Amino acid sequence: MTQENISTSSPRDTKWREELRNKKTARERTSIPRVKMPELDPSYRITCNEEVNQGISEVQALTESSRCLDCPDPQCVTGCPVSINIPGFIKNIERGEFMKAAAVLKETSALPGVCGRVCPQERQCESRCIYNKMKKEPVAIGYLERFAADHERLSPSKPALTKPTPNGIKVAVAGSGPAGLSFAGDMIKRGYDVTVFEALHEIGGVLKYGIPEFRLPNSIVDTEIDSLASQGVKFVKDCIIGKTLSYDGLKESGFAAIFVASGAGLPRFMGIPGENLIGVMSSNEYLTRINLMGAGHAGHDTPVLKGRSVAVIGGGNTAMDSVRTALRMGAEKAFIVYRRGEEEMPARAEEVHHARQEGVQSMTLSNPVEYLADENGRVRAMRVQRMRLGEPDASGRRSPVPIEGAIDEIETDLVIVSVGVSPNPLIPNAISDLEISRRGTIVVNDDTMKSSLDDLYAGGDIVRGGATVILAMGDGRRAAKAMHEALKSS
């Protein structure tokens, strides 16, 4: 069956589905090419905030799921930080049991619609797929996860909720990002009375303020949050743990334990001359103003600086989000400045590809050393040191080394700095006897996520200093399991 036949077949064609399902030999399955994700045209999508990736159809999902070889020792599962039963949900898609596939996902993931969009599957589950050993493209696990989650979301009939028997034990969560939501999802299933406290006016944490809607629509995040609320999770907005409510106050209110998932919202700068100029800002501030506070959109009064020539410093996913957002905000030119080469960029290959399609330019092997001001104190240019790659550093990446005398002056009227973040210091500084690392992160046991205090666990960026959505979710799951065991035996 050719790709052309597949793309024109009806998903309701029973004969076609039976033929596809009966492709049992590995040779037949591995001969099917990996599905391609439909996406918006670049010239259109930079004019709006619509989601770039459009999702795969039923036909594409059925075809892609049939590529799975149902390995006896599925290594893809070992590559997933939340241990999703990947063969289980994929085989349900292959059988046309899409709602069952979504149910399998929800056994271990509180955010399947989110993960199917923003998780770096190519470095995790898909990197362990047996197809890689065959020098073929791996099964599109992320696309299939998104398909199953979206099918359930859009289905007119939702599965009946099975609520566990309440055990009467209250637990608190500080922060409603991926770590906090994942923890809440696991604990509510175990019968706990879970309350999530969020400092901002919107639930979702970095999923809302950090990731643009063209990559992760807020409606998807809201669906996942509504699902948790329907299971009994309580959400409290505009409440800062460590200020509005103290750690001792939570205990006095009857909370048996707390999971801290307050993130890493403190931006880092490079400490170079000119960083205090008008027009030099952090990616945290830039994205929060636009994503969470509606800057630049009709009906919102939040101000945000706009530039004609926008430079984004950094090479991670947040840098890509910032530079692509700048284009959508009207920049004539938007470019990345990164001190290593493109191959060393930590951003997902898909994000780099989309940015390039949209017209983003890259200045690799370049590092800003000074920002220059115009007569009004606004940035007008930057001095950039050219670099070369030297020996690998502790992370295994080759270290950038300055090329003596190779400094250029580059025109720019808006600089967005995206070189990392630091943990939110409020909770660590507000709780005595809590062990804190030199980086300001909460020190925990790697297996249990338990801190130096018996009733306080932590995960996500407040522990890691910076992590992916799925790694933060994995922390939440480990903490939930360990806290449950501790409370059950107390």
List the helices and strands and how they pair.
Elements: H1 3-8, H2 14-21, H3 26-30, H4 42-45, H5 58-65, H6 75-78, H7 86-94, H8 98-108, H9 112-118, H10 141-154, E1 170-174, H11 178-189, E2 193-197, H12 206-209, H13 218-231, E3 234-236, H14 247-252, E4 255-260, E5 266-267, E6 280-282, H15 283-292, E7 309-313, H16 317-328, E8 333-338, H17 349-357, E9 361-364, E10 366-373, E11 379-392, E12 398-411, E13 414-417, E14 421-422, H18 426-430, E15 456-458, H19 461-464, H20 469-489
Question: Which sheet architecture does the biggest sheet show?
Answer: 5 strands, parallel
**Count of all domains:** 3
What's the assembly state of these chains?
Answer: single chain
How much beta, percentage-wise? 15-25%
Task: Give the CA-CA distance, first to last residue.
Answer: 60 Å
CATH superfamily label of the largest domain: FAD/NAD(P)-binding domain
For the secondary structure, the number of strands is 15
The stretches of 5 or more residues where confidence is low (pLDDT under 50) are 1-10
Please tally the helical runs, counting DSSP H or I stretches of 4 or more residues: 20
Helix content: 25-40%
* Major sheet strand order: 3-2-1-4-15
Query: Strand pairing plus helix content: what structural class?
Result: alpha/beta
